[in-house]
TrEMBL record:
SMART domains: UDG, UreE_C. This is Type-5 uracil-DNA glycosylase. Residues 48-227 form the Uracil-DNA glycosylase-like domain. It comes from Nocardia jiangxiensis. SUPFAM superfamilies: Uracil-DNA glycosylase-like. The keyword Hydrolase applies. It comes from the Bacteria.
């Protein structure tokens, strides 16, 4: 698959049906629906990344939620995790408004893009290793398209960290050996291994899941601190 632009990539991702289990799950969730959303038409497809093609900062999550991104068609949109993330991005100056409710609500991400290593909602929020590996080619294409501008990545959670490092190695950056370990506040720099790439700094941040935000493991201030540091490192004002 060759994608010459981010728009082309986003369209191709939305049409992907490569993982039989995930296609069945996302479509069943869209058909059965959660009671609170029974009058809505679910997206029910793979959820593309969100944000400009010349982003300097990339936020990497895990996968869409069955009644969040799989419902609205937009990453982190329609669930509590997204509420926490977009509010922090707004405070950090990375989003034009503090909430993201649906496609077409006017939200603009500022110098920043959001994506995930797996683009379809998985049962129990747990993609299999096969599904993660099958979806990696979309992430590699996305990293390649963003490469001319990309300077920092904020990775939400250890699962995303593990999924991202091989994709970075295949996308033209040198991943240190042994591989850097995930932790909240961890940061590491990757040298470019191909022309047209700059030095890339990746930041670890606890995931914005309710499990972390409800327990105080990740506070809004902790998330905002990481985003502000990544923004500054990316040269965004
Ligand atoms: S998870 Fe990725 S590879 Fe699998 S169907 Fe969805 S978009 Fe395609």
């Amino acid at each position: 698959m060759v994608c010459r632009s981010i728009d082309e990539l986003d369209g191709a991702v939305a049409d992907c049906r490569a993982c039989a289990r995930l296609v069945a799950w996302r479509e069943e969730a869209a058909r059965v629906k959660r009671a609170a959303y029974r009058d809505e038409t679910y997206w029910g497809r793979a959820v593309p990344g969100l944000g400009p093609a010349d982003a300097r900062l990339l936020v990497v999550g895990l996968a869409p939620a069955a009644h969040g991104g799989n419902r609205t068609g937009r990453m982190f949109t329609g669930d509590r995790s997204g509420d926490v993330l977009f509010a922090a991005m707004y405070r950090a100056g990375l989003a034009s408004q503090p909430d993201s409710t649906r496609r077409g609500d006017g939200l603009r991400l500022l110098g920043t893009r959001i994506t995930a290593p797996v683009h379809c909602a998985p049962p129990d929020n747990k993609p299999t290793p096969d599904e993660r590996d099958r979806c990696r080619h979309w992430l590699i294409i996305e990293l390649g398209l963003l490469a001319p501008s990309l300077r920092t990545i904020v990775v939400l959670g250890g699962w995303g960290w593990q999924a991202l490092l091989p994709a970075l190695a295949e996308s033209g950056w040198t991943v240190p050996r042994p591989r850097p370990k995930f932790g909240h506040g961890v940061r590491c720099s990757l040298a470019p291994a191909l022309p047209g790439r700059g030095e890339l700094t990746i930041f670890g941040c606890y995931h914005v899941s309710q499990q972390n935000t409800f327990t105080g493991r990740l506070t809004p201030a902790m998330l905002e601190d990481v985003l502000v540091e990544a923004k500054s490192t990316a040269g965004l004002r």
